[in-house]
Amino acid sequence: MESLAQVLTWIVAGLILGQAALVTAYARFLYRFRRPQLADNECPRAAVILCVRGLDPFFPACLKGLLQQDYPDYEVWIVVDSARDAAWPVVNELAQQSGKHKVHVLALTERLATCSRKIAGMLQAISHLDDSHKIVALLDSDTIPHAAWLRQLAEPLRDSRVGVASGNRWYMPAKPTPGSLILYLWNVAAVVQMYCYKIGWGGSLAVSANLLRQSDLRQRLANAFGEDSTICRCARAYGYRMAFAPSLIMVNRETCTVKSVIGFLQRQLLSVRLHNPWWWAVVGHGVATTAVLGLSCLLGAVAAATASWSAAAWIGTAVAIYWTSMVLLILPLEWCVRRIIRERGETITGFGAWGWLCTALAIPLTQIVYFAALVTAFFARTHCWRGVRYQFFGPSPVRVVEDSAEKV
Fold first, then answer.
1. Which of 95, 196, 249, 279 is in the most buried spot, having the most CB atoms within 10 Å?
2. Could you tell me the pTM of the whole model?
């Protein structure tokens, strides 16, 4: 048993070193942050698309930020699921108050049955654009853009080889609830993987008009569940690069429940499974870390129960070091992110000593929840998202089989 304990200990050490290398690469990327500022005459004409279904807690702040961009020439296309949607009056009132003439509010009428409702709204808005639009930016309704958001998103697209520019999310919940801590810890690992695998984030993403008009991107989107992986995969297929903008780490301060987090993680992983070539790498990482840690805990318990103290010491030391290292690896990323957020003048909230203790204790729970979501996403044939049920097998890879809004 001691030999097996030593082997597992070295495997755990390998996992720590591997994850430390990835975190170091991403931390260096964030540390090199600079605040790029395009001159007004360098800003291409842009269209920003915001698709809305339901009223998110931070949606009014999102819309206000979008309508107050420090960008010389941009239009806003807001596609609301229907005129009966709770967001409809809020959108129209804020659009009128903004005084901007280039805000277009549409109800979703092209309700495609072969893609997500969000993508259907995107495609409807894109159909209204003309050749004068040089970039198309996407924004989620729970993302609050700062004044320079669009200008910084457009900066990487100055390089003609770049077809997609993306920011990323960072959770900074006001309260360290179990659900919020799981989401925070998962996201810390996810942003590192997204950077290494070049997986964009649809909550803050821009596409060059060249990619949009000279590829089959629209056809791909019309048969897709997740827009970000689909767009990035199309860009690679046509020889374009995807660039992350470190200045666009967007803070999400939402407090959530464990139940809502599980559904969210399943949806994120489903999008990777359906559209991203790195799916098996994600599966391999999730299975490997869960199996090694689970087996280590099981072997440690057996060793303790059978008084194999040497083996128990090996395993206990390995698990303790792994646990401690996971907390320590968060710190440089948190420091880099806070530096970026502080540069924007945004409020920084922390958990305090109690919150960090809860964060450390939530690491095993996060591993369990993440693995459960990964298994569910692996075998899922249906998924319900905001009242819409999607099916993932049959003649089309994605099909809408039920929409609660259409029953009203």
1. 249
2. 0.91
